[in-house]
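Re: the 386-residue chain
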Amino acid sequence: MKSRLSALKFVRNNKKQVWVMIVALSMTFMTMYVINFLFLTTKESFKALFLEQPKKVAYVELSPETMGVDSASYSSEEELYQGIDEARNSIMDKLKVHEGISDVIYTQCLYANYQGIVGGVGYDFPLLEESRIPDFLEHMGALLTEGRMPEGPGEILADKKVLQNKKMKIGGYFNESSYGKVFKVVGALDSDVLTCVGTPRGYTNSGWYMVILCNEENADMSAVLKDVGIETTEYDTIYDSVDWAKMYKELVTDQIDAALLAILIVVIIFLAISILVAYVSFMRSRVNEYCLYTSIGFARKDIYGMMMKEIGIIFGLSIVIGAAVTIVIMVLLGHFMLDSLGLVYHYFYPEHLLRILTAFLAIVGFLQIPVIVTINNIKTIDMIEE
C-alpha cells in the first residue's frame, strides 16, 4: 500500500506543542551561535596584536651575562652601567646591518591594554623622539587620521580601535589610571596592527627595550641574535613573533576553543534530554493513532517515515528561525557594542556553524531510540484495549 501519511497533519493539529519545541530549538541555536560569535570576536580582535604586530616590531632586553658583561670585573656601578651600554650599542650596531632589520632603538616604552569580550591583552609600544615617529609609522603601516603628530614630551598617537576600546579620546590622557595625567593623546591612527607610539616624558614608563623594526622573515629574534653571535637565555626578555604566536595558541585559541566545546556539550546534553522527554510525551499521546495506521494496512516503515518527516519539519523550521534571529542579534551586537569597543568581528564562522548543525543532527539520531522502540511496540486496533 502506498503511504499517504502526512507529517503536516500532526504539525497543524498540534501547533502549541510543536511551536514550543521549535522555539526552544531556535533559541538554543541562537544562543550557541551568538556565544560562539562573541568568543570568536576576541580571537579575531587579538590576532592583530598576537600574530601581526610582532612580524613588524620586537622588544628585547638582554641580561648583562648574555651581552658578555662580567659584573665582577667592574669596580663601580657607574663603570658597570657604562660597560652594559657599550655592549648593548655594539649588539645594536650588528642588528642594524642584519638583513630584514630596518632600525634598532633603545628607548622607554609604555604599556597599552586591549580588552576583548573575554579577557584582555597588554603590550608595549615605544616612546621615541619626534623625528623618529614618521619612520616608525611608515614601517608599521599606520596613518594619522585625526589630530596631529607629537610635538613635545608626553604626547601619544594611538590606534583608533585602542582609543575606542579604552574609552579614550584625543585631548585626554593615555591610561590615566596607570600613569596619571602624564601622557596626552594628540592623534588617532588607522593601523592593521593596533599601532601606538609616543614621546617620552621624564622617566615614567613600563621599561626600557631594544625596539627592533623587522620584517616577517626576520621576526624570530632568538634566531636573529644567534646570527650576530648572541645566544639568548631564560634571563633575557624577548617579545617577538615566536613568543606571541605561542601565547596566542596557549592563552587565546586553546582556552576559547575548550570553553566553546564545553558550553556546546553542556547545552546539547540538556537539550537532548528536554527534547527526548517532550517527544516521548508526544508519541505516548498518539499510541492509538499509530495502532490505527497499522490496522488499516500501513507498514511500520511508513509510520517511521512520517515520524521522521515530523522531526525534520520541527528541526528544519527551528534552524531557519534560529538563523534569522541570530543574524539580527549579531548585527545589533556588532553595531551597538562591538564597534564602540573597537573590536574586530565576522558574522560567518563555517566551522562553528557546522559544529552546531552536527549537534542538532546528533539529537535527531538520539531520538531514533524512542522512535524505534515505539514503532516496534505498535499494536493493531484489536489489541488497543489490552
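The chain is about 55% helix and 15% strand.
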